[in-house]
Structures are given as C-alpha cells and as structure tokens.
Amino acid sequence: MAPFSKPETILKQAEGLVAVGQTHAALQSLTEMFASKRFRSTPLASLEPIMMRFVELCVELRKGRQAKEGLMQYKNIAQNSSVASIENVVKKFIQLADAKVAEAQEKADRAVALLDIDDLEAIETPESILLGAVSGAENRDRTDRALVTPWLKFLWESYRTALETLKNNARLEQIYQQIALQAFKFCLKHVRKVEFRRLCETLRLHLSNVAKYAHQAHSINLADPDTLQRHLDTRFAQLNAAAELELWQEAFRSVEDIHNLLTLAKKAPRPAMMANYYEKLARIFLTSGNLLFHAAAWARYHAILRVVGGRSEEEMTSLAGLVLLSALAVPLGAEQREAEEDGGKGRNSRLTALLGLPKMPTRQGLLKDALSRNILKSCPAPIQTLYSLLETTFDPLSLCANAAPALQVLAGSPDVGSSLPVVAPSESSFAPYVPLLHNVILARLISQLSQVYSSVQISFVMDLVTPLTGSTLPELQEQFPNTVSSTKDASSVEAFIMLSARRGELRVRLDHAEGTLDFSGDESTQNLFDGNLRTLADALHHTLVTISPPPAQELPGFEDLVASAIAERKALAVRRALAGKRRELVAELQSKHDQEAAAKKAAKLRKDKEEEEKRAIEDVKRKEQERMRKEVESIRAAETRKLAEALKARGKNVDMTEIEHMDKDQLLAKEVQQIDKEKRELSEKLRIEDHKRQQVEDRKSFEVNARTTLVAAREHHVQEMETKQRLSRMLSDYTAARDVFAGRRGEEYARRREEARRKIEEEKAKRKKQVSAKREEERKRQEEEDRLRREEEQRLDEEAAEREREEEARRAEEEAAQAEEERKVAETKAKAEAEIANRRAEREKAFEQARLQQQREDEAAQRGGGWRARTATASSNSPAPAAESPRERPTSGVFRPPAVRAAEAASGSPVNSQPSSPAIGGSGAAAGSAGGGWRARLAAKDAGGPSSATPSGRNTPEPPAAAPSPRLAPAAPASKPQDDDEGFTTVTKKAPVGGGGAWKPRHLRG
Predict the structure, then answer these.
(1) 985 DSSP 8-state letter
(2) In the list 36, 97, 264, 330, which could disulfide-bond 155, CB 3.0-4.6 Å?
(3) Which pTM was predicted?
(4) Per residue in 66-99, pLDDT tens?
(5) Residues paired with 517 in a beta bridge
(6) Residue 509 is inside which H or E element, if any?
(7) SS3 call for 264
(8) Which residues of 702-715 are buried (b: 16+ CB within 10 A; e: fewer)?
(9) What is the pLDDT of residues 14-51, one digit of tens each?
C-alpha cells in the first residue's frame, strides 16, 4: 500500500491525472485514500472537496459500487460531527446522475431527429411518411437502449446507494426522506413500475429493521412525533405514486404501512392527510371490486371533509352524491358474500381496521348513515331519483323505465381516478357506478317480481329490462375491470339470475322449456305479503288524508276522548294477552302430550324409513355397479373386436373365435408388433429405392463434372500456350537486360558480401569474448557462492552441536536437581512417617499405661477402703499425720519402677516398702488419700486449687480439707507426687523421718 499523503496532495494528483485523460487512475488514487488507516483522522474540511471530486469521477465512469463504498466510509466518519457535509455529498451524487440522464435523453432526441431525416433537401413523399410511421418507434427504442438506458440504470443504482447509505440513522433521517421522494418522482417520470416495487420493498425493509438496530447509536425512534410524521409523509407520497402508476397491489401495501404507522402515533394525524388516505383507499377498493368497503371509504372521506370544511357547495354536493351512489351500487347480499369469501381468514376484519370502523360495514348501515347525515338532500336529483326507486317505492313494472333516464344522466366521460391530492370528485366520476347500478336494479327487479308473481315469462322480464339494455354505457372495462353490466343482452341477464340463485340471494328456477322464471320457492307467505300490505296501508292513509283532511280546530274534549280510547285499548290488549296466555298454556300441555306421542311414532317411522331407504340405496348401488360392469365389459369387448378386425385387415393372422378369451393388452401388443414390422419393411423398401436413385444421380453428376472439368482443362491449356507464345518473343530482351544488370551489380554485390562477412566475423569474435568473460564471471560467482554456502553450513553445524551440548548439560543438571529434590522429598516424607509412627506408638503406650494405672488404682481402692476410712478418721482427730508401716500396705497392685521390680525379682523380696497412696491435689488430704489417679488429681485441682510442694521435692503436711469428698474419708497429709508426661501419677517411696524423696525415672536421676 502506498504511504499516506495529505488530502490536498491527493486531490492535486487526481486533478492532474484527469487533465491528461487518465480518469481511471485518478479514481483509483482517491479510492486508495479511503483504504488508509489515517483516513478517519483527516479533517472534514479537507475531505469534503475530495468526496465531491470522487463522486464526480464515479458518475462520469459509472462506477456505482466504488461510489457506495466511498459514501459508506465518509458517512461513518462524518455522521458524528457534520451531517450537512454528508447531505451535500449525497445530493451532489444524485444531481450528477440525474444530469447525466437528462444529457443522454437530449442526445437520444437529437439522434432520433437526425435518423428521421436522411436528406434535408428531399421532399417528403407518401412512401417516406408511411415508412417513418412504421419504423420511427423502433428507431426510438434502439436509441434509448443504447444511450438512455445505461444512465437510467446508473441513476436507479444511485438512488438505492443513497438510501442504503442513509438508512436507520436519526441524524440523516431528513435527507433519507428527501432521497426517497426523489426516487418516487424518478419512477413516475420514467414510468418504472418494476423499480417502484423494488423501492417500496426497500423502504419497507428499512422500516422493519428499525427495531433491530434500536440499540445502536443514532437509531430511529418512531415514538418521536416528528420522525413518525416524516415517515407518514413518505408513505403517503408512495401511495400517491402507486395510484398514479396504477399499481394497486403496491398501493394496498402502502395503505397497510400507513395504518401500521398510524397505530404508533400518539396524536391524531392531520385531517387532510386522512382524507387523502381514504380517497386512495376508495380507489383501491373500486379497482379490486370490493364495493362494500369502497362505499365505506367514501363515507369516511365525506365525514372528514365535512369537519375540515373549505369546499364549495358544488363540490360537497357532488361528493354527497358519490357517497350515496357508491352505497346504492353495493350488490344486494354483499355482506353474506364477503363473509363466505373471507372463510375465517380475517380479511374482512383487517379491511375494517384499515377503515377505522368498529365492525364490518353493511349496505343498510351505509344507507342509514347517509340518511342520518342528511346526505340525501345534498345529492344531485338523478341520485335522489335512484334512491327513491331502489329503496322506497315498490313498482317492478316501471322500475327499469324510471331508472334509465337518471342512469343516462350519470353516464358521462370516464374521467375517474385522478391522483391529484384531496380534490372532490366531479359528476363525471359517477360513470363507473352505472354498470353496477344496472346489476342492483336487475336484482331489485327480480326480488320485487318474486314478491308479486309465482312465475313470469322470460320474455316479460326482458321487456322490463329493455330500457337498461338499450342505454349506452361508458367504456371503463380496462380501467375498472370489475364494473361490468349484466343487462347488455339476454344471455347476460340469464347469467346474472343464475349466479344470484347459486349464491342463494334469490330462490328462482329458470325453465327454458316453458320459457318462465319460477319463484314458487322464493319466500314464505308472511314475507310475501309484508311488502304489499305495507304499500296498501300507505296508499289508504294518503287517500284518507286527501279526501278528508284533519280539521283545523279540534272539538272540545277531543283529547280526553282520545286518551280514554287509548286506555281502553291498552286494557283490552292486556285482557287479550291474558286470555291468549291461558290458551297457550292449555295448548302447550296438550301439544306436549301430542308431541311426545308423535315423536315416538315419528321416530319409529323415521327408523323404518331410513332402513328402507338404506336398502333401496344399496339395491340401486348394486344394480348401478352391475350395469356399469356390464357396460365396461361390453365396451371392452367391442374395442377388442375392433382391434382384432383392424389387425386382420392389415394381414395379421387373428382367430376371431378366440377374441372373447383374448385381452385388449395382448391385441395392442400384437398391433404394435405389426406396426413395427410394417415400419421396418417400409423403411427397407425405401432405403433400397433411395440407394438406386442415389446411384443414378451420382452417375449423372460424375459424368457432368467430368465433362465440365475436361472442357475447362482444355481451355486453360489453350490460354497458357497462347501466353507462352506471347512471352517467348521478349525472352531475348529479358536475357540481355538481365546480363547487363548482373554485370553492373556483380562487383558491388561481391564487395558488400565481403564486408558483411568481415563484420559477421568481428561480431562473432566479440560475442565469443563476451560469452567467455560471462562464463568466467559466472564460474567465479558460483565458486564464491559454494564457498559461502559451505562456511554457512559449517557454522550452522557447529552452532547446532554447541546447542546440543548445552541442551545435554542443562538436561543433566535438571535431572540431578530433580533427583536431589525427589530424594529430599522422600527423606522428608520418611521422617514425617517415622515421627508420626513414634507419636502414635507413644500415644498408644501412654494410653495403655494410663489404663493399667487406673485399673491398679481401682483395685487398690477396693482392697484398702476400710483402712483408708480409719486413717481418714484418725487424721481428723490428730493434727500430725502418722506414717504407715510398709508392712501394712499391700504391695500388689501398686506401681513400681522397672529397676525396683528387677531388684525384687533378683532378691526375691521387695527392695523398698511402698508408701501409701499419695494425696492428689494440694488442698486437703481427702482427695489425696483416695488414690484416684490423674482423673482424681484433675478433679481435686478443679475443686481446691494447686498443691504446695517444697523446693527439695519433699511433701509438707497440709491441713485437712474443709469439705471432704463424700466418697473418701479425709486422710493424713502426704508428700506431693510427681507427675510424668504420660498423664498418670507416680507413687512416691515412703521416706524415713530424716529425709527421702520421690521416685524418678532413670534418665532423670543424678
């Protein structure tokens, strides 16, 4: 990678390269700058001119990918410090690409103009005019593909690059929306429907990724009202563009996007925006043929415009007529049809939510809502007439005739569906509803006829529909494919009637044999006469009012009479209700009994009937299967016979008597074999004939070619002989001239040849010297390289040997150190184990000695209990202790040192008389006289404190304890025993009066 240079230097280098025509090199130098690590630390004031020049070069060379990478890098640097700089660069990029498209368009126009006029002075003829009309469009298309289309593709890629660069960044949100609006204008200007769909999908994908990148810095927050409003403005522009391009599916998706954004809004959107929303939604529903929701959308649109105001009286009148007319154009039974088409998929609920309605609209609900808002009085007169004919009056014989003039007035030029923002529709926008009203009028006609007649002639119905059939309809099939009239001819009327009957909207049967429409199963008797009775009651009421109008002034007391009459009527109604209730109860009891009996009887009859029907059905099925089997067998036999006859006609030997036992597949196989055989025979025959014919043709061709070749050879020989004779006349002149020139140039040729040979020899010698010198130098260089290589190898070998020696010495030292460490560890471990064993042995020995000592003390206590009590009594009576005779103290069970026991064993008698049991504890002789061992001593210490001892080790008499132990009697004071380290007390020897001492082990004796 080249070293990083200053931005100003790189820009100057790029300008210099552009000046000399190396545009690609200039772009490459700017691109390399973006790859440098120091690019991020460069000031934006220096980078912006470079980016401007960079996008200019990218547009000039149509390098969209490099432009995208550069814009991404620049956005990552500048988004935290200067958003305006990014906007300037992106706008410059789009402007340059747009300018290139305009320039290419101008070039294409000039090229087409020049192609159209080949000769400027030629006079146009009819032939030239006709040829120009035929080939002009093709020339235009070819020119556009060559000049305009590449720049259009680059401009489209530029819009996509800009949107990808600016997406999901709150600081770049405004410029992002501006680029999106410019992309919509691009699609509208150049009528790019495919690109518009891709643009909508891109915007939808960016919006769906808002939640995905919510954790990043500068993420978009749709909870912000300004941000949400900008997104809504963009989606409304998208909706307008889709409507203008007539991409209704994309328009519906845009409506869903707008609805999803509106659900996030915390405040209500602008009324003008919602009016545009409902107006586009109404157009979408009309195009898709969903007339029920189309009428609901117009109703919402009218409600918003009434609240907003600002419209003229004519515009509001026309809009009111459109609302009512769209509701009248909804087919009868549309609600049931929509529910059946929905089938639980939730489509109707979704469309209802798009319109902001609490429930699904209905035709009657829309008409009632229009009447409640006084729309009927604001409508034009033809629409009021249609409403009266369809919804209030009952006159099937004159329905079509009365509606035809109003429909003819509404049928105007189909100027429908302009995409201008929020403009009230004109009367010409009523034209698409005329075919739909024809269908509604026809359905209403059939419904009213079914209430009056049980059957009518088809010709009679066609006569009634004639006013609609003869009227002119606007041609709107291409713009509104779902607005087709069913009254164009008799077949259309019949198709409409049968379709309504199949949907269940009408109960009618079409009888072509009689030429009638049968309504006998249409409605019940009550429904049949409801309409007629209502009409009769209204007519009688109007007649009475006309004949005898109510008096201007009522008679006195008339109100009281009316009130009493009303009260009597109410009382009579109550009595009638009570009587009717009683009759109903009696009838109910009787009917319940009758119903139970009838139910049992009906159940039995129904069961018998079901069994009979089941048997009948089984018999019918069996007979039908038998019939079908016989038919199949007869058809198979007939086909088999036909195949056999065909094979026999072709010469195949087929036994006709065995046809019944033969299978169709076998005959087919034989037929296939026969066809293959005939095919092979025919092919062989044709091959032989073709071979013979080919031999004849080859022979003829050979003879013709031989004759032609021979004639041509003879002619060529004659021509060559003539040429030889012609040239032989100048042979002598040629020879003389050649000799002259050869003699003149012979010496010069010899001299030059000798000089050339000499130069060649000199060059050879020089070349030989050069080659020899080069070879010598190569040999010396090779020897030097060999010497250096050998020295290097020797040095490397010595270093390797030295490293090996050092490695061996280090390894030996490590092994010795490791062995010494292991030895020390083993010794330490052995010492620790020995010490642990000694301690364990000493502890066991001490425990054993203590156990034996305790045992001996217990035995001694049991044997000497009597004299110890006497001793304790005597000691309590006399202050001075009396020494006990050794002969009075038993020797068994008393501890003696090993040396004493050895001396006793040698002499056969005890060496020293054993003293009495020493006192344990220092205070009082009661504990000491008990002889309880180390446990007694510890108890005495806890009870009375430490004992006193003389420095010489002799025991001094102690006063008797204040509270002697209840277990032992107080005893005379004795000498303090000496404790050893094993936890038990040694027994001291009874010393004479003049001296003595305690027993000591051998290692403690002086």
Answers:
(1) B
(2) 97
(3) 0.47
(4) 888 888 888 888 777 778 888 888 888 888 888 8
(5) 456, 510
(6) strand 509-511
(7) helix
(8) eeeeeeeeeeeeee
(9) 777 877 778 788 888 777 777 676 666 677 777 788 88
